[in-house]
Design brief:
Shape: globular
Largest sheet: 8 strands, mixed
Number of strands: 16
Number of helices: 4
Order of helices and strands: EEEEEEEHHEEEEEEHEEHE
Helix content: 10-25%
Structural class: mainly beta
Strand content: 25-35%
Distance between the termini: 12 Å
Length: 272
Amino acid sequence: MKFQSALLAALIAGGLAGCQADSDIAGLGGDVVEDCGADGICGNDDDNGGFGPNDGSTESPVFVDTDGDGEADTLVSEGQGFVCTELAPTGSTTQVGADGLVGGPLTDLLNLLGGGSLTSLLNSVTSPGNVVDSQLATYATFTTTAGGLGLLDTVELNVLPPGSMNLEGRYAVFGLSFPGGTVDLSLLDQITVRTYLNDVEQEYRVFDSIVIDLLGQNLVGGEPIWFGLKATKNFDRVALSLSSALLSVDVGEQLRAHELCMGGVFVDPPTN
């Protein structure tokens, strides 16, 4: 099902990152992040490579941890679609990492694995900055090549918000799409969203069979979705990762990450 156009004229609003618009979605009245696309026209789905209207058209697999064990295990809102109202704050940065590591500890690991490991890791995620550029039309791309990452268990695209802020209660939700023809439902459970605080894992959600059953055929053909978690603990880093099963499959472009969303609402899917 194609996302339906439900957003109107674009405007810039202070306090929220990205293109925003007045909207009649469930009476929100504005502050909806739009896909303005390569053609510069906001709020449409014109096959320009973008995310499409951010209007809650697809039921969104966004979960929350209800028992404090770190696994986000319960849908925040069943049967509704997520509408992003706030992207990552201005000044957020990205780092490509592996096995939960960034910075110095990652460098030490890569040195143990050999000189080509850093190059292979960096090449596995192209245009990582696109996930915090406030444009749903652009995306970072995970590319997997058999044997290219050696002994690494995961490759991760990390987003680090600027400064020090309490993000408990906020969202760690990525806009994702899958290049047409590469979706393998048996491998999707290797995709994970994790939050960290001072490099210690806080919460996570795996793209598992529950998510696949929830979305059904909406994954086929590159249809975009929102996927992730609502944080019950503070965090200073969010990681979107691909695990070992995907790293050993030579499929080229496997996953596109359009944007990190940290604020949003749930609405009934539009009917027209």
